[in-house]
Amino acid sequence: MEKISESVIKKDHSAKIKGEALYVGDYDNSDILFGKMLRSKKAKARLVNVKLPLLPHGYYYVDKTDIPGDNNVNIVMDDTPVYARETVEYIGEPIGMVCGPDSTEVERIISEIEVEYEDLAPVLKIEDFDTVFFDYEYGKGDIDKAFKEADKIYEEVFETGYQDQTYLETQGMMAEVMDDGKVFVHGSMQCPYYVKGAIMRALNLGTDKVRIAQDVTGGGFGGKEAFPSILGCQVAVAAVKTGKKVRCIFERREDLEFTSKRHPSRNTYKVAVKDGKVTAMDIDVMFNSGAYTTLSAVVLQRGIICANGIYNIPNLHVRGRAVKTNTTPSGAYRGFGAPQTFFSVEMMMNHVAKDLGIDTLKFKEEHLVKQGDSTSTSGEYHFPVPIPAMIDRVDKACDYRRKHSEYAKDQTGRYRKGIGMSMYFHGAGFTGSGERDHIKAVAKLHKFSDGTVQILASNADIGQGLRTTFPKIVAKELNLPLEKVFYEYPDTDVVPDSGPTVASRSLMTVGELLRRAAIKLRKEWVDGEDQIVEERFVEPDFMIPFYLDKFQGDAYPTYSWAVNAIEVEIDTYTGLSKILGAYGCFDVGTPMDYNIVVGQMEGGFLQGIGYASTEYMVSDDKGRIRNNSFSDYIIPTAVDVPNLYVDMFVDEKYPFGPYGAKGAGELPLVGAPGAYVEAVEQALGRNVRLNHAPFTAEDTMKVLMGEME
C-alpha cells in the first residue's frame, strides 16, 4: 500500500460523533423565520389567482413579484423559475413561500391559501412527449454496411426508473441580509459557486454583494448539486423582502416528492452480429427530464457517450434525447446518466450471447476494449484497461464461472439461484472540454506565520472525506504533521472557485492542483511569514480535443474501471430475492485513504443494488410521485446485503492525478443493476429475458405467474 493510502481518523469524525457538527437545522431559532412552500396541486395549469388569508403581524408571503432580478435559476438552460410564472409545470412546483416565526402558524396559513387554476393538458409519460429539450447524435464507422452484412440482427428496449438520493439530511438553506447589504446564504450543498451565480442573477447583485457558505452537509449524491441553487434563490428572495433570517428545511415526504431524482430512461438497442461478433450498434436513448431542463444536457451527454459500454464496437450510431414531461424535474445522481445506459448495454450483450449459445462472460470478454482502442467518440483509451485482471479477481472471490455455468441449468424447487456480472467504467472528470473551458479551477494554499496551512478551495465535503484527503496531500508534500493542515467548509468570501463537487473530479483534478501548490509552497517557504500560493488547471497535452457538436475526441482524460458480481436466491413462493453475495473489484488509481475509499465502494455499491431491486418510484395518473416515504420507497441496508465484498482494488495509476489517483465517488453505483438483473434472470430460467430496473419482487412474481415474457 502506498504511504498516502494509509488510513487516518477523519478530520470531521470527532465533531459528528459528539453531536457538535453544525448543520443548517442546528442554528438558534430565535429571530429566524420558518419558510414553507405553497406548492402546485396541478401537473400543468395556468395560475389564475392566489387568494391569501389575512396574514398575522410578522408573517409574509413571497412569490415571483418579489424577485428583484431574473426569475430564472442559473443552472444550464436557465428555464427553472425561482417561483412559478404564469403556469405551473408539475405537481409540487413552488408558487410562493410563507414565512413566519412559528412553523405551525405557517402551516395553517398555507392550508388556507386558495389557488385558482385553469387546467391545461399535461404530458405524464415519456413516450407521449411533445417537447425535446436536448437532442444529440454521433457515430463512427459504416453502420448501414454492418447491418446489411449481418448474420443476425437483434433489437430490444430497456427501461430504468427514478432513483431518489435519500441523503440523511433533507434539503435545507438559510438566508439573511447582512448589515452591509450583502446577502448571505448558507446550508446543505455541493457547489457553493453554483449557488452564488444563481443568487446573483435572481437578486440582480454583483459578486461582492453575495456570500455563500456550505454548512456541514448530511449527504448529497448529486441531489445537492443544482437543487440548492433553486432553494437558495427562494430563501434569498424571502430574506430580502422580509429583512429577516429565513430558513427552509424540507420534511422527508416533501423531499422525496419534489426534489430532483435520477432520470428515468427508455433505451432502444439494435445490434448487428457477424461471425459471432457484434459489429454494429444503433442506439436510441431517451431520458425523462421532467418539467424543466435542470442538468439534463450534461446527464444525457454522459449517458450516450457510454451507451456501448466497454465494448469495442467498430460501427456505432447513438442518438440521445432528453424530453419534457409534467413531472418532478430530474437531475444529478451518482453515476450521472451512465447507470441507465450501462444497464441497457450489459443486458443487451447478455441476451445476444444467450441467443447465440455462448456464455455471457466469454462473449463480453471477446469484445472488451484495450489500451489504444478507439472510444465511442473516436478518442483513445490512452491508459491500460485492467478489466481482464479484475474479472479474474472477482471470479476467485465468488467462484463466478463455475456458479454461472451451474445455475444456467434448469432449476426446480422453491429456491433457485442465479449469478450475474457487469463490467464498466466511469469517465473521470467533466465531459469533454468542460474543465478547460468552463470550470477553469483555481486552488490556493495559505501558510500562516505559525506554520499552519489552510487549503483554499470550493469543493464540499459531503461525507466523502475531502476535509481529510485534501490535507493528507498537502501535508505529505510539505512534510508537515496532518494536524498542521486544515480545510474548512468552503465560504465564497474566503475561497477561490476550484469548481463544483461533481463528476468524480475533486481528488483527481483539485487534489492535483493542491499537490502542485504544496510543492510550490515548499520551495518558497519562509518561516514566520504569511504566504499564499495558487495553482490553476491546465489540460494535459495528450488529450484529443473534444467537439461537443460532433461528439468527437476524448470525452474524458482517463477512466476508472470496475467489475461487479451479484449472486441471488429467489423464493418462488414470494418472489423475494435474497442476495447471497455482492462482489466488487475497482480501479480508482491510488486511494488517498484506504478506509475512506472502501466506505465509498460499499455505500455506492449498495445504492446501486437498491436501484436494481427495491427502489421503485413512479408517478400516478395525475403526475404526483406516489412513493413519498420510507414505508413505500425501500432503500437497502447492510442487513439486506450481509455479504458485501468490495475489498478488491487494482491500482492503475493516472499520471495527472495526485500520486496516480483518479475518480472514485461515482464508480461503485454504476454496474450493480446489470449484475443484479442478470442474476435474477438466470434464476428465473433460461428462456427469460428481463429488460428493466428496478426489478422488484412483484416483477418476479409476474414472471413466475406467466404475466411477463
UniProtKB/TrEMBL annotation:
Question: Which Gene Ontology molecular function entries are recorded, alphabetically?
Answer: aldehyde dehydrogenase (FAD-independent) activity; iron ion binding
SMART domains per record: Ald_Xan_dh_C
Which InterPro entries does the entry mention? Answer: Ald_Oxase/Xan_DH_a/b (IPR000674), Ald_Oxase/Xan_DH_a/b_sf (IPR036856), Ald_Oxase/xanthine_DH-like (IPR016208), AldOxase/xan_DH_MoCoBD1 (IPR008274), AldOxase/xan_DH_MoCoBD2 (IPR046867), AldOxase/xan_DH_Mopterin-bd_sf (IPR037165)
EC category: oxidoreductase
> What stretch or stretches form a coiled coil here?
none
UniProt KW keywords: Molybdenum, Oxidoreductase
User: What are the residue boundaries of the Aldehyde oxidase/xanthine dehydrogenase a/b hammerhead domain, all occurrences included?
Assistant: 18-121
Name of the protein? Xanthine dehydrogenase, molybdenum-binding subunit
The species this protein belongs to is: Clostridium disporicum
